[in-house]
Each structure stands twice: as C-alpha cells, then as structure tokens.
Amino acid sequence: MYPVPNMTRAEAVRAVRNPLAYIADHWTPAPRTVRRAALAAVVMAVIIVVTGGAVRLTGSGLGCPTWPECTDGSLTTTGAMGVHGAIEFSNRMLTYVLCAAVGWAIIAARSSKPWRRSVTRLGWAQFWVVMGNAVLGGIVVLVGLNPYTVAAHFLLTTALITVAVLTWQRTREGDGAPRPLVGKAVTQLTWLLVVASGALIAVGTVVSGAGRHAGDSSEVARIPVDWEMIAQLHADLAWVVVALTVALWFVLKAVDAPVGPLHRARDLFLVLMAQGVIGYVQYFTHTPEILVGIHMLGATLVWIGVMRMLLSLRERPQEAPVTAGRAAARKVAETNAQAVPVQPPVTDDAALPAVREVPSGR
Which one of 64, 129, 204, 306 has the fewest beta carbons within 10 angstroms of its own beta carbon? Predict the structure, then answer.
C-alpha cells in the first residue's frame, strides 16, 4: 500500500479544477519520456487503422448493429452476436486504448519543463480528432456501412496520423523559429509530392468503396463506379508518387542537401516499392483479405513517410530557457540602473579641492 499524500483543501480544489497543472507541478518527465509518449500515439493510430480494416475484411462491420450500444439494451457484445460481434466490439474498445495513448502524450507534454504549449496543443488536437472519428464511426454503423462514410472514416484517421506524426516530430526538436535546410524549389517539389500522396490515398478509399469487401455479409451499397477503372487510376497515381520521390532524391543529391532529407527520401522510396508490390499482387489475385489488410497498413506507412519527408526539410533549434532566477536578477539590474544616476567624471581643475601645502620643517 502506498501512503496517501497529504493535500490541503486548496491543493485538492486545484487538482480537481486543473488536474494537468497539478500533475505538472509534481512531475517532470525526461525528454525521452515525452518523445516515447508521442510515438505511442502514432503507433496506436496505425493499429486502429489495421484493426478497423480487420473488422471490414472479416465482414464484422455490423457485428454490433447499433451505436453507442453494441446491441439494443447491451453496451457489450453478447453470445448471440458470435465472432463478428466480438471483433467489432474489440475494435471499439481499442478506441479507449488510443485515447489513453493520446492522453499520455498530452500529460507528458504539459508536464515537461519548460512547458511547451505548442506540443500540448497538438496533443489536444489529436484528442478531438479521435472524438470526432468515434462519432463518425457510430454514424457508419447507423447508416449500414455506407461506403462514403467508411471512406471519410479512413480519411479522418489519416488526419489523426498526420497530427500524431507532427507531434512526435515537435518533441524531437526545439521551439525556435524554423530554418529551411533546402531551397524553395525543393520545398515546392516536396509539397507536390504531399498533394499527390493525398490524392493517392483518397482514390484508394474509392477503390475500397467500390470493391468486393463491403464490411458485412449482408447486402451493402457500394460506390457506383467502374472498379477496374478506378483501380487503374489508383495505380497511375502510385507511379506519380514514386516518380516524384525519385526526382526529389536526385534533386537533394544535386544540391548537396543534409543527410536527413536524403534518408527520408530513401525510406519513402523503399516503402513505396513494397506497397506497390503488395498492391499489384492483391490486384491479380482478386484482393484476398490478408493482402488487403497489409495494403492498408502500407498506406499508413506511406503517409507517415511523406510527412517525415516534408518535416525533414527544416530544423527548429532549441531556445535557451530563461529561468525565474535569471529573470529576477535581470529585472533588479535594470531597476538599479534606472535608480542610480551615473556621475560624470570631473575634468575642471577649478572644481578640484585645494591641496594644502605641507611646510618643509625649516
């Protein structure tokens, strides 16, 4: 048993009103702890994508046919719902694990010294995206797995990954003004890569919405487009992203860029190659469930690679923190300098005191 700490009434009220500030007053995490907390949120965002894909690929999308309850009158799955109910309910429970990971990142960022408000705000942005996506997930169930809502659900999760990766990056750098490491042309080429990758992921959701994995064994509406045509467009966009990545790598080599952007371009190219192989194999083998799930994981890794490529083009140095003691000493020095006037040197001989002549003794 651990002893209960003694708290005054004022401390108890403050802990209830602002628990984050209370924790920050009594705990200072190491910088490595803050980075690991942010990375845990990234990992959980990826896991929730994979498990959500497993729900759809196993036909368990309506395993819990209502929301926020699993069934009418029961918050949890029942034996009558079978394995599909267990799969869908397990994915819902993972949302709480994701919230815990995001909450841990918020607490760690808020408790760091000095307090980095920008990192804390990014953590709260993740939290609200998770809440919005939970509501959207409920809407997906209530509308019977409408493919447009399913696509929006995946895209909002991609937005969560975007903010999580940005938070993780910010924990690994300072709060100084960002300084570009490459020229404007390289930055513009990278932004073109980001736009093309976003289009690739968006079209990929249409491919899934028009494909055969509807998410449930019952009749579920699909997006009314030619699946072969949209899959070809998806493949063409993938080659555009690959070409832009290769071009970016050669440009970075030509301008003698730092090793950071070069390594990020190399890593992105390798992930794209693996993702492309999986995509073509699943296409020619009629989209088996396991390969579709791996392809969904690859989509998240591609987007993470694109974000890291973009963020590697600048650096943010550490700012020297001004401690309370240094700030107080500086204020006292400024006050004394204003209160004590500086006497000008005396240069007039008449103003000098007369020197009494000492008799010689004769």
Answer: 129
